[in-house]
Every structure is written in structure tokens, then in C-alpha cells.
């Protein structure tokens, strides 16, 4: 029944992506090829980021818990490359507002899922040993979908020239929040004294993501109604 | 983790080596098609039979990390269990493993979490099976099969007496060097027959000194044989006799005074000379018995002669000397054991720690001085002086060398076995004409066959029952359904949220 478990994990991880693609009106725009292009851009961006990291940051041995927070902070700054990559993609993809955001966000998230989460699932979840870890990876993939859609939306908002000047700082703060999100577990371990594990960590990651999503949505809607009025 | 497998020797032992089963402990209600984990102390022969009849598919016996801590009663029980295991063949895979911390943890969690087969109702059973962790035990590799080209080695050497070698009488000293037990990799054979080898090597060392000096060069040949296959009906001695008696040109065993077989000498205050036919008065054998008695008295060892007729109806011989007696050579076995089937030979409990080095040193000295008194026909005391004396250090180093590794016949097979080579080197140093004689079972009518996979690596996985995965599927489908609904009604939700957001905007302006 182990392959069955792998199937479960895959369904849990990929199901929301497929559903989002199917039922958000994207097929009507023939967005699949565009999503693939976005994924290509994702790979290119990751390569550039890796090149930067490998050039400027020597590898530190040992478990990640021991690495200093400041060093990690500087390293994560390289993730602004994602923001730049998304901006470039966004300028190339044609389409109206929300479709643009959906294509970029979904393409980016799908590429991320394929490249970072499929292999651990394939290797681990098919094994005889049962571990909640693989269900957690799959749920994390769902959070990551929201996160990437979020980031795409924020980036799109940032490049709007007609964005109200009062919300621009909020957008900037949210973008940096999204970029520095990978540091959350470490930050929590610094604050709480121990690193949260398993489902607690998952919940801890999901909460800020959902909050950001709600705020970004609010800004988007306000912006839209501003345009209309 | 180190796991040691049972041999399938002829038709005793376990026939299977592959395991991929769920684990249970002995107190589980149902053991059918399960891998049973059991502590050695909990196992009894009747329980073992019960396991097999209940249809357990594999058994992992957890040995205490130190076998010596067992009380005498427990040791007796272990002997009985071992005997039950080796009584016949079984289809289940039997593994023995030393109890490490990891194994203890696994055992405890299996015991507490999986014995839920008896639930009051089907629903309760389902619920408990969903919440509990199962443990899957996996031993991979290949199924055990017969070792096709197994060889057994005889290591022999000879000290030639002064004069024409062919005309001098010969004393043969024989000890088998293999070991046996429920698990081949655990058969260390400390007392049986590590002690016999040690005595033989010490005799070779002492005699080589005396033979090298012209003043003490006796008119007597001494032959040494470390025979292989002692636990498979003394195949080494059988082969040795065939080579040297049936071949007409060999004078190796012509006119032997007697053949002294050494077997299990590392404990006890009584040494017994087991004979098939009482030696006549004035015969060399009887003379040796007398010298042994007188040497033993000085050290406080009593020497007994035990007579046991060879039963020609039996296929196997009880003592090694019976092989020689059957060929009409005067022979006897010197051992501390009262009889051949006391269960102290061929057990996994017979480790190097089971040998009392002090006793073995004393016994060796007694045997050596008796043999020297017989050879030189003197009764001078302190015949073993300075360089010739048997020291505890040398005995310790010999027994450590020999009994620190398993010596099951299948593990000693092959041309370049380190232990056999070492024994050969030792005899090469102390005797002339030392050589190794390899032999194999007859192709058409083999007298023995061994099976491989003597050691395997076991992995334990925490697993969930299949029903758990079904429930997981249902939960995931439900979750995806909710997402589907959300997306379907997204325009509605969006409108709702817009209504909530826009008044906010109105407040701002």
C-alpha cells in the first residue's frame, strides 16, 4: 500500500494546482503554454540565484540550525531575484490584470513544486516506512501555492503606476515579508527557544501567508474599485 | 544491526532467509504469518514448537548482550531451545540477534503498540488499527541456497623421531577445530573445541623444543591433526584415515601407539578418557592412562576411564576416537564431559568466556607432562621447565585467537581462510611436513551440505495499516472538494469581499 500513499501525497500536493488552473478561467486564455514559459523563467532565476550564492557565500558545514541568523538573512536577500524574475515575466505576459497574476503565480508555484517537492515524495513516500513528513510536504505545497500567487499579486501591484501612494509602502513591506518567509522557522526558534516541528511549523507558516493574502486581496480590490470609480 | 542466520545443514535448521512481515511479540494473540520477536529468556522448546504450528513465518530471537549473565537454569533452557531448533528443519526464517538499544526499543514498541488483534468489536478493531503503528520487519538479500563448492580443511603436521622414521611408532594427537550452534555466526566454540586446539598447539610447541635438541630427541613420531568437520560426524578424521590407511604408500599411521583425541577440556576438575575398548595392560594406551593418572593426582585432577561401545547401527559417531577405533587403531578421547550428548558441545553459549583459562592451563600442563612421561618413559617431576612450561599468557593468547571468531564449517570453507592459514602457520613453525589438506563432499552422494546466508541485515519500518491510507484518501478528496467549491464560487466570494472592502475605502476618502 505504499505506492498508494505516494498517490495520496501527490493528490494532496498537486490537486489544488490542477483545480486552480481548471476553475479560475485560465484554460479559456490558453494559458498553459504561458505557464510553461513562466516555469522556464523560474528555472533561469533559480540558476542565477544559485550562481550568486555560490560566488559570494562560502558553504558552511553542519546542520542548518547552527548557521547564524544574520548570515541566513543576507543569503535570503538573494531571493529578491524571485521578485525581479516575476517582474520580468509579468512585463512579457500579455493579458488583463488578474489573469496575468494567476499565470505568473501559478506557473512559478508549479515549477517550484515540480523542482523541489516531487523528488522527496518520489523517494520517500513510496517507502515502507510511514511518516507524517510526506503529508506535511504536500500540505506545504498548498501553502506555497497561496504564497506564490500572493507574491505575484504584490509584484503586479508594485509596478502599477496608478497605485495609491499611501498603500505603496504597505506593498513593499509585504513583498519583503514574502521574500523573507523562509526565515520564519529560524526566527521562531530564536523567539521560542525551540524550533517548532511538524504540523505546528506548518500552521506557523500558513498563518502569515494567509494574512498577507487577505491584505493583498484587499489592496487589489480597493485598487480595482478606485479604477472603476 | 547484526543479525545471524541459522544454517540449513542437511535437514536441520531453518530453510528460509527472506523476511517481509509485520512484527509481533510472543504475547500477541495471533502469530500467523507474522514475524515474531522473542527474548531468548522467554523462549521454551514447547513455545518454539507452538510458534511453528501457529504458522508464524519468521522468528527473531533477541540474545542478551552478555550470554554469561544467564543463570544455570536459563542456560539449561537455552540448551533446550537450541536443541529444539536443531532437531529438525523448519520453513520459517529464524534469526538470532544481540539485543542492542535499538532492538530493545523496537521490541518494546512492538509489544505495546501492535498487540491489538483482539478487540471487542469490529469497529473498535478498525479504530485501534487506524491509530496504531505497525512494524514491518524486512530482511532482504537472496534466499539461502546450498553452498556449491564447499571445502573442509585438515591441518596436519608431524614431528619425526630419532632414527629411521618409518620404523618408529607414532602417537597421533587429534583435535577438531570447527564449532557449531543454532546460528553459524555465533558458534564460537570456546570450550568445544577451542580448548582442544589450544592443548594440541601447546603440545606441538613443547614437543618441537624437545625434538629439536639432539639430547632429547625421542625414538617416536608424533603426528598432529587439526581436523575439520568435527560436528558433521568427524569428516576430517574420516578423510585423514582414508588418506593414510587406504593409500598403501603412506606410512603416516603405521604402527601407532595410540591416537589421542582432545575434546572440551577448558573446565572442571575431572578429565575422562573415553574409550571404545579398554586398553590392555602393558599397552601404550594403558601406560599413558597411568601416567595421566599420576600427573593428575599431583594437580588434584581425577582421571576416569569411561567405556562406551561403538554402536554400529548409528550413522554418526559420538566421539572422534570412534572413527579411529573402527579402523582398529588404538584411540581414545580425552574430555571433561561425562558423555557425548550433554548439550555442552555445539552451542552458542560456548563462547571464549565459557573457558576457564586457569583450569585450561592446568589441564594442558597435566596432559603435556603425562605425554612427556609416556614418551620418555620416566617419572621425573618438573619435567616442564622454564621455556617448556605452560603459561597462562600463552593459553590466553591461543584461546583468544581461536575463539574470537565464529568457526562454523561453512564459514571456514575456501582456500584462503585466515583462521585455517593461521593454524597452518603455527604447525609449520612447530612441526615438519605441516600442510593443509582440502577435501569436498562426494558429488554423487554428499555426506554433508551447508547453506549460505549466515548473516543478514534486518530493517524495521514503522508502517500504517492499509485502511489508514484509505481514510487518508477520503480526507484528501474532501479537502480537494472544498477547494473546488471555493474556486467554483469564487466570483461570489470575491463580490462579498469587495463589498466588505469598498466601504472601508469610502471611510478613507
Automatic annotation (TrEMBL), chain A:
Membrane topology per record: Multi-pass membrane protein
Localization per record: Cell membrane; Endoplasmic reticulum membrane
Transmembrane region(s): 198-220
Keyword Endoplasmic reticulum belongs to the record: yes
Xref: InterPro entries: TMEM147 (IPR019164)
PANTHER family the record matches: BOS COMPLEX SUBUNIT TMEM147, SMALL SEVEN TRANSMEMBRANE DOMAIN-CONTAINING PROTEIN
Keywords of this entry: Cell membrane, Endoplasmic reticulum, Membrane, Transmembrane, Transmembrane helix
Signal peptide span: none
UniProt source species: Halocaridina rubra
GO cellular component, one term: endoplasmic reticulum membrane
Pfam families according to UniProt: DUF2053
Family: Belongs to the TMEM147 family.
Key word Disulfide bond present: no
Top-rank taxon, per record: Eukaryota
Principal place of residence: membrane
Protein name (Swiss-Prot/TrEMBL): BOS complex subunit TMEM147
TrEMBL record, chain B:
TM segment ranges: 470-490
Pfam family, one: Peptidase_M28
Bilayer disposition of the protein: Single-pass membrane protein
Principal location class: endoplasmic reticulum
Keyword terms: Endoplasmic reticulum, Glycoprotein, Membrane, Signal, Transmembrane, Transmembrane helix
CDD domains xrefs: M28_nicalin_like
Superkingdom, natural source: Eukaryota
Keyword Cell inner membrane: no
Domain Peptidase M28: 154-369
Protein's cellular compartments: Endoplasmic reticulum membrane
One Gene Ontology cellular component: endoplasmic reticulum membrane
InterPro entries named among the record's database cross-references: Nicalin, Peptidase_M28
UniProt entry tagged with the keyword Signal: yes
Family: Belongs to the nicastrin family.
Protein name: BOS complex subunit NCLN
Taxonomic lineage of the native organism: Eukaryota, Metazoa, Ecdysozoa, Arthropoda, Crustacea
